[in-house]
Amino acid sequence: QVQLVESGGGLVQAGGSLRLSCEASGRSFSSYTMGWFRQAPGKEREAVAAINWGDDSTYYADSMKDRFTISRDNAKSTMYLQMNSLKPEDTAVYYCAAVYIAPYFRSRWSDVRLYGYWGQGTQVTVSS
Prior knowledge:
Blueprint: E1 3-7, E2 10-13, E3 18-25, E4 33-39, E5 46-52, E6 58-60, E7 68-73, E8 78-83, E9 92-99, E10 117-118, E11 122-127
Parallel strand pairs: 2-11
Antiparallel strand pairs: 1-3, 3-8, 4-5, 4-9, 5-6, 7-8, 9-10, 9-11
């Protein structure tokens, strides 16, 4: 089992920034893909960004590319999501997730259904 714990959410004004953290534990995940997803009230859970732990490759949803940055710290077993220029429509619960995805299937990184391990989420609220 892999345990994931998110932190760093909160209330921020439009145009502000937040950095989310996801700490992983429980087993080796050096070959895993780890991603950030979000779910706003009344909407489906959607992909934000992901990173391959082994080679540091990153992926972004098109709408997030210019404002969000995903990164990791191997020593701390922690993944980060730096969010800048936040907008009210970014308001959602943000979830950390992990899965092993073979290289052939990594183009499907954004598919929520592939991820087997999830954190409990952290609330991000952006006021206008």
